[in-house]
Write the structure tokens for this entry.
Amino acid sequence: MTRTRIAWLVVIVGLAALPFLGVSVYLLHIAIQILLWGMVYTAWALMGRFGMMSLGHGGFLGIGAYVPTLLWNYYGLTPWIGIPLGVALAVLVAVAIGFPCFHLRVVGHYFALVTLALSEVTERGIVAARDITGGSLGLTPRTVSGASLFALQFPNKRHFFLAALVVWLVGLWVWHRIDGSMTRLSVTASADEDAAAAVGINVTREKLKVLMISAALTALGGSMLGQYLMYVNPGTLSGVLVTLQMLFAAVVGGMYTALGPTVGSALTITLTESLRILFGTRFIGAANTIYGILLVVFTIFMPVGIWGFVVRRLERWASSPAPKSGLPGAKVT
């Protein structure tokens, strides 16, 4: 077993033991949100790191959050079935949007505009169907008494922390699988699609594969957030603003590293909670204002993000030559 795997094993065991070490309920609540949003941001970063600037992930998140909630409330269908159906619908939408875009080589800001429309349409559709979805007021999943594995509802936050940990690890595992596969090389080579096609790379298929995986992970994160918060709202779990939140966290944390988006998640959630405690309702827009300022600063001065910067520093330190022993000018015999 390599040192990296040993380190990961220690981290996983340490995180799994966290709920049983007397941590307060509030800190567990923050940790659960960091893990779930970290997975969502990791899903978006799968697109961003390959230059596919998607602004439609708020739509995938909303689909993942609302589908299991609606199926549970109206048909009593367990989230164990509703969540996969929400993920499948998000993937179908991703194919419907991505295939014509990639086939016709709609890239750059044009692709961003197409996906932007997806986020906007999803949010507007949820608001317009207020008789079913609750509109802008949101919707609360039907609750059951006590803990229920069937309803995926756990009053004890320890259970949901472990579930969030598993989901987060799935996101990181997918990241490493793509990062170490031919898909990464294929999508990276697609900067010159004609040259890539000449050597047998199906650029459309590889890009679509990344979009489908990213949409599936985002929808899964939306489903888990809806189940944990026991409340879905178009303003917080869908739309353009949520997508911009993903972009901010991934860029600031570092979207070229596996842990970067999670670092961004920890920063955004900690900042939001701190401002809520300090200002309450007196400065509601403080978080978004600070997000915008930090995004500009990090894009200009630290484009690799916080964790990317740390990783580069550690790599330089590890590769630097060891200092020679002895005094300057001393003769070694």
